[in-house]
Amino acid sequence: MLSEDLLNIYATSFRKNWDLPALSDYMTGNTLTYGELARKIAHTHLLFELLGIKPGDKIALIGKNSSAWITTYMATLTYGAVIVPILPEFNPQDAQHIINHSDSVMLFASDSIFEHLDFDNMPAIRVAISLDTREILGDHTSGNKGAKAHQALGSAFNKRYPLGFSKNNVKYRLFKPDSLAEINYTSGTTGFSKGVMLTLNNLCGNVVFGMRSGLHYSGSRCLAFLPLAHAYGCAFDMLVPLAVGTHVTVFGRIPTPKLLLKALSEVRPTLILCVPLILEKIYRKQIQPIISKPSMKRLMAIPLLNKRIYAKIRNKLIEAFGGEFEEVIVGGAPLNHEVEEFLHRIKFPFTVGYGMTECGPLISYTPWREFLIGSSGRTLKGLMYSKVLSDNEAFIPGEICVKGENVMKGYYKNRKATEAVLDKDGWLHTGDMGTISDAGTIFIKGRSKTMILSANGQNIYPEEIEAKLNNLPYVAESLIVERGNKLVALVYPDYEAMDKAKLTVDMMPQVMEKVREELNRRVAPYERIESIQLRANEFEKTPKRSIKRYLYQ
After folding, report:
1. Regarding beta strands 398-404 and 428-436, do their DSSP bridges make them parallel or antiparallel, or are they unpaired?
2. What is the layout of strands, in order, in the sheet containing 362-365?
3. DSSP characters for 112-180?
4. Is the terminal CB of the chain with fewer CB neighbours within 10 Å at N or C?
5. pLDDT, tens digit, for every residue of 509-540?
6. For residue 315, what pLDDT is reported?
7. H or E element in which residue 10 lies
8. Can you give the pTM of this predicted structure?
9. 413 in helix, strand or coil?
10. Cβ(277)–Cβ(283) under 8 Å?
């Protein structure tokens, strides 16, 4: 167990950074200082008391990213209750199932989501509170206790703090490090999501690493555009920043490249968390059309000139991302190799990390200046340990297993699923295939469940082929599947690119045959695909935007 106490970290941060800006909503411009955030947290703690909420009780939270969302999460955490964050993209039936399955006794929800939930079929929920207005949306308490508590809150707060709420009032209770802090329901691609049980120590491991890294610091700036209900954004766009005094601007909208680049230029964050999709879209739409021109290819073949071209592209890209960041950390999914190689070649300051919800989420990371292309960073020193189940973990791929401070307690009320991934020695079997160098650097090949064994005994990782295919013309997204011992590519075309090239649908089979031939020149002989099957619609995806592979096998 770590020597640091997570809740004391926040009490110290709130007092130390009292007058600094803590949270801003990008859409409205409203800002809370750390002192105002601490006051709102204390206000929510008193509401919990009046409603009879006890430490260890579960509180569900669903809504888009906002300062109100963050305040609710932090209030629940610092009270000692268990937060159950739910991705707002979950359909109402799944969200309601999670609320009931988690045994939540209180619900905070945005109005637009709550109106699609059936409050009568969530009997354990005592009171539902609006994230938008803080008004009561539903009350199952006897004698309208919830409404009465809500009405009495203001006077009760003034009575508790007659001299006003000050930094001296910011003190949080001590709980055992292995106390349950969060149940995070994964958006898995293999069926209904499981509730990952994360302890105070699990969250603290991620926060302590973030603090030691110095990537966030008092007065630094962060634009939170990843889903905060997902472990990646939660840890490094919220938990770590608030532990050190960072100013978090909450985007609160779907981060399309156009809107996101505008926000980045205005906020000018000092650290950027990003998923591969954002970088890949910018590369394909803005960079690839320029560097693929024959005249540009000839210029880039000239040694001294290509450095100047690369520097110009790098500087333009850095300025587009705000111009004042230390690095871009890519996580959540593998980064396309072609995009990664190009960004590395132009010396763009980025790095790729590796994690999973079951580790809250971080497993490995390396600062961009030490980052090895094709890797997912080094296993967190002193916090996490890793190994590969193979005869030679540095050269022969096998399943990656991890152990340490960040590894979850298990899946909530799902002993069978827990035992399937956590062995008796505490090693978490990630389901990812890869190798690990002597220095602890992780290289991921793909998922063990998606690996295809060829007729001649070769291990084929579909993700590697898809990465190459997705960079070819007129391919928006793809899946590689096995059909009768042959590899087949399912492709959803890039209709926008087709329209620009004046290509009609009936011309696509011929176009895709050229794509297939080009792909087969780029892959190993045993990875060559037999045919391409076109799809009229996008692949069905999880709320995290991962393709639900199991639907297409």
Report:
1. antiparallel
2. 354-355, 362-365, 378-379
3. HHHTTS-GGG-TT--EEEETTT--EEEE-SGGGHHHHHHHHHHHHHHHH-TT---GGG-------TTSE
4. C
5. 999 999 999 999 998 888 999 999 999 899 98
6. 94
7. helix 6-16
8. 0.88
9. coil
10. no
